[in-house]
Amino acid sequence: MENTKRLSDMVYACSGIGDCRIAYRWAVGRYGVCPVLEHSPQFDPYYARGKIRIAKGILEGLLEPSEGLAKVLYQCTTCGSCHSACHQTMCEYIVLPIGRFIDHTKLFEAMRADLVEEGLGPMPRHREIAEWTRKEHNPYMEKHEDRLKWLPAGKTVPRNADLIWFVGCTEPYRMPELAQAFLKILEAADVDFGIVHPDEWCCGSIFFRTGVWNLARELASHNLEVLKASGAKKVVIHCAGCFRTIAKDYVELFGKLPFEVVNAVDLIRDLLKEGKLKLEKANVKVTYHDPCHLGRHMGIYEAPREILKMMPGVKVVEMKRIRDASWCCGAGGGVKSGFPELAVEIAKDRIKEAEETGADYLVTACPFCIMNLQDAKEALGSKIRVLDIAELVADNLALV
Amino acid sequence: MSKVLKLLQDAVGTEYVSDEDFITYAYARGIDSALPPNPPDYVVKPGTAEEVAEVVKIANKYKIPIVPRGGGCCLLGGSKPIEKGSIVLDTARMHKILNIDENALTVTVETGITWAELNSKLNELGYYTGNLGPGSGISAVVGGGLSHHSVGGGGGAKYGTCTQHCVALEVVLPNGDIINTGSNASVYTKEPFCRFGFGPDLTGLFLGDNGLLGIKTKATLEIFPKPPYHAAKTFTIEEPSPENAAKIWLAWRKRGDLGIFDSQLWTLTMVLGTQLLTDVPQIKPWVGLTKAVFFYTMEAETEEQLEANIKIVDRICKENGCTELGPELKDGNYAKWHYEEQGHWLTFHGIWGGMGPGSIPLTTEVHVPIHRFPYIAHKLDEWEAAHKAELDANGGMQSGISTALLCGHTTVEVDAGLLAWDKPQYRAKNLELWKSQLEMLIREGGMPYMLGEIYSKGLIDTEAFNGAYYSFLKSIKQALDPNRIISPGKFYL
């Protein structure tokens, strides 16, 4: 358990008070914490305190890792809600110590990496995905050569440019309409950009999250070299998972990157502000779901809201749980692939919350959130439309 | 599969019982840096009182100890097993609000609901529970608070302990019987509304019992409309701050009801500690303060009433060494955050990690009469001086009073204790010093209320109870729980 041991300060920092279970502080918009807990038998290891107490037991030689433990550890979306609830004052003038000392997501990923080294992780489906990705560089059981199929016929994109769009795997293979929407926006604003196809590989997100760190590092090293070779000064990423991985995990792995990394929402917001995108009146009521990869993991809360505010005819109605206290969709941390039913059960909670606002659209900025929320919407028979913020913008571009 | 496991599964459902080591280990410890971990054999999560009763009957048949547990927040080892081979009965699955009765002015809940969740729902209707439970009320549940006479999570000065507002309980007795107390004791009563009547106060038997006499499964609490006006002010206070704070509190109390909702003293040690012990100061506007801090929050029905009470309260503060900080949090007005942003449920959390990652307190908090607070403060200073070398040698432990707070009409809660490192090499000495300080406080007249393992045993070790009292307590325990099923080991019973 060397990876956990390296983070032993975090393990011992946990007091065990348990604010990570079900914290309510309505004055700051906090209504609950752990999205998994309500859909589990609710024993302590299903939320952060129990996991950390187990880590302490393992470090002190009082407990051995097991298959049962692995199954519980992988039923965590690594959404980071426990971190934001952990003694967080949500107040700029008061900073309690413990939340600063523990990075819950990082610790749980390290515990998973140890389970992988012990042969107890990841979950069977994650293993299949890893095996495929080693061969075809994507986690969707698709051929690498099909990666560019989402591009409209006849469309060519340069491989070298100051601005490189890292497209990822989810959109090309599963949700091409999202990539096409972002492409439409870039073209409407006359933005010069390149794509490093066919050399782009999976960013490694799923493997960072599930503890398959050897593969994650291999993919990261490859992508870094490819991006460097492209001459990129800036890399824009529409996929929230790829964005978190490259902007955060790659930086932790390699240090400062030789290019700037921005999310698509920042770029779209800037294009709108600069008047490079003209929009028609939309006349819709929308609510915005903060993806964990973008919000709690990367601190991006404002840009998507600014975009929505700049869209004529778009009325924004917020859900009860937003920003730092946002409710995870349930897909993250490998839960969608490892425990698909659990993922959808969690997403149902979020769909119901969105419906309470009376919104026509549930808008977000992450393909995994969309995929999972869409599944939950269908399971519930909900009428709310789930879509990406880039789709909303692209659908309302004015013809010029 | 063991016979007991099978029976427990039949009682509460397969999903809600576990004997897996990684599950049971998660219930082996409380929130302290001293008591050794002791995993139970089983953890069960019943969903109803009837399921609790079934578990209790199984435990009786096989003579297996049960430790009731709510949020698992006890700071003194109350929610972990003392004896080997236990069942931890986790009530957190039972967290429904059963009825908010705006005519009887009560709320009835399952006891596994947290104070914060309950008050969040009440707030939507303009109510609160008055006393908002313990300082850990974000994670602590109603059942735990009622088992401890909890007070520190807000509203303590105005409403006293949470147990003062409990009008009825549903309790699973150690033999598996389920009883209703208070006004619910009669089958003819239409709704729970009052605790006192129908003979002896049997509700009181289970309040503050530290889980010794039964398992509380439902509780009815009074609810209060939240007043429309409030004030929140923070001051520096001259030394000796315990003397000055006690004078202020006593003077307020002698004026009658001034609407004080909460009032706390942050000792100079604590104020300096928040600036010096960790790399980032906890309360940024207090950086540079070299005085203790005192604050109050106040509620009123009208603006006139509020203004009138502020005048009286502020004059008494000023006469006793207080200088007001500015009105906003950025000016150092911590009270504003405490009241307006539910900081009352986080106010003690600054102590966790207070010396850096891995430092966790060992509380010795006690109640004393208001006027005796300075005396207890002196005794703690003496204890610290006498143990300085041992504290230093054990990783540099800190000792003292973090805060003191006005509790009900007559009492100050003195939040004394140690700040220690939660590492295996320090735990034995941590335990020794912890016991030493809490036994001193008992001998000096302090009244602990959250007892857990260590304070309940400390009361017996110090012979705080005379023979007849302890005998009486033993008789009650023996009569209710002849097989020593519920929380064995507390009070050495």
Provide a concise account of the structure shown.
By secondary structure, chain A is an alpha/beta fold. In chain A, 47% of the residues lie in helices and 8% in strands. Chain A is built from 20 helices and nine strands.
Outline the structure in words.
The complex is a heterodimer of chains A (400) and B (493). With 400 residues, chain A is α/β, with parallel strands linked by helices. Chain A folds into three domains: 2-117; 131-270, Rossmann fold (3-Layer(aba) Sandwich); 277-395, 3-Layer(aba) Sandwich (Rossmann fold), CATH 3.40.50. The longest helix of chain A has 17 residues, at 213-229. In chain A, 57% of the residues are buried. The radius of gyration of chain A is 21 Å and the shape is globular. Chain A has a four-stranded parallel β-sheet with strand order 7-6-8-9, sandwiched between helices. Chain A is built from 20 helices and nine strands. The model of chain A has no long low-confidence stretch (mean pLDDT 96). With 493 residues, chain B is of the alpha+beta class. Chain B has four domains: 3-90, Uridine Diphospho-n-acetylenolpyruvylglucosamine Reductase, domain 2; 97-225, Uridine Diphospho-n-acetylenolpyruvylglucosamine Reductase, domain 3; 229-449, FAD-linked oxidases, C-terminal domain (Vanillyl-alcohol Oxidase, Chain A, domain 3, 3-Layer(aba) Sandwich), CATH 3.40.462; 454-492. Chain B has helices spanning 3-12, 21-25, 49-62, 115-123, 142-148, 156-159, 202-206, 241-254, 268-276, 303-319, 334-340, 373-386, 388-393, 424-443, 452-461, 467-480, and strands at residues 17-18, 42-44, 66-69, 87-90, 97-101, 106-110, 127-128, 166-172, 178-180, 215-222, 224-225, 229-237, 260-266, 292-300, 322-324, 359-363, 366-369, 398-407, 411-421. In chain B, the strands form four sheets. In chain B, strands 12, 13, 14, 15, 16, 17, 18 and 19 form an eight-stranded antiparallel β-sheet that branches. In chain B, strand 18 (398-407) and strand 19 form a beta hairpin. In chain B, helix 1 packs antiparallel against helix 3 (49-62). Chain B is globular. Chain B starts with a helix and ends in a 13-residue tail after the last helix. The model of chain B has no long low-confidence stretch (mean pLDDT 96).
